[in-house]
Design goal:
Distance between the termini: 29 Å
Strand content: under 5%
Number of strands: 0
Structural class: mainly alpha
Radius of gyration: 23 Å
Number of helices: 13
Largest sheet: none
């Protein structure tokens, strides 16, 4: 860990520089994806297309809605392309506060952060979306025809994709916090019941209002918690002992006997 103490303004300047690099990476991803914007949107909309009743279709209700929606879907795709850069810049920002051995984990951090985020978003897209949109589109009938707006769909879908991506980062975050000694598997296990309640609250807030899709988000959250507890148990910083199995407290570490 570096002994140099930087002023707060220097940290803000460093953060600003990292954010600019992330924005440039997303912008480059946006430009790369813009040429394929219609194909990307069509792919993203497959779950809702499959759930639409017969003779229903997607629409746009404002003159510039289709144009801006395709711009937004290009930015969303650009964000996913830029994930390795974003995670690297995140690591580079926090690296000065790490030990030398921990700084060498940059490659695994970037690779696994990107992999977990994409896996979480993929789980939302391939597993949760079909059930969720089938439920929501099922409210249509003879007097009420489902004709969702493309802009509203993109906003709803992108929030879920990012939410699932962030949720799947939990084991990785636990790994680094436990390595740093900030949390232990005992703490996570002791507060398991509170986390389960929060998991169901979060799933109710982020997913469509039906039990199946809420369980499809709350279930993985609870499984990820159990994985995180195991990660903290295996990789967490081990407490020091006196050689006879007794834990050393802080005073004993400062003034060892003999």
């Amino acid at each position: 860990m570096s002994d140099e103490r930087l002023p707060f303004t220097a940290h803000l300047e460093e953060l600003r520089r990292r954010l600019i690099i992330c924005f440039i990476a997303v912008l480059i991803g946006f430009l790369a994806c813009y040429a394929f914007k219609e194909r990307i949107y069509d792919f993203l909309a497959i779950p809702i297309y499959a759930s639409l009743p017969e003779n229903s279709t997607m629409i746009f209700t404002r003159v510039p809605e289709a144009f801006f929606t395709l711009l937004k879907v290009s930015f969303l795709a650009g964000f996913f392309l830029a994930l390795p850069v974003i995670f690297y810049q995140t690591w580079a920002f926090i690296a000065p506060g790490l030990y030398k051995k921990e700084k060498m984990l940059v490659a695994p951090f970037v690779i696994f952060s990107t992999l977990f985020f994409v896996t979480g978003s993929g789980f939302g897209y391939f597993v949760v979306f079909p059930y969720g949109f089938e439920f929501l589109m099922g409210f249509g009938g003879d007097k009420l025809k489902a004709m969702p707006s493309m802009g509203e769909y993109l906003s709803f879908a992108s929030k879920l994709l990012i939410a699932f991506g962030l949720v799947f980062e939990l084991p990785l975050i636990t790994y680094f916090l436990s390595k740093a000694g900030l949390i232990t598997h005992h703490t996570l296990a002791k507060n398991r019941r509170y986390f389960i309640v929060l998991a169901f609250i979060a799933s109710a807030a982020l997913t469509p209002p039906d039990v199946i899709t809420q369980l499809l988000m709350a279930g993985p959250l609870i499984i990820l918690l159990e994985i995180s507890i195991l990660v903290a148990r295996v990789f967490g910083r081990k407490p020091l002992t006196d050689g006879e199995g007794d834990l050393l407290d802080e005073e004993e570490l400062r003034h060892p006997a003999g």
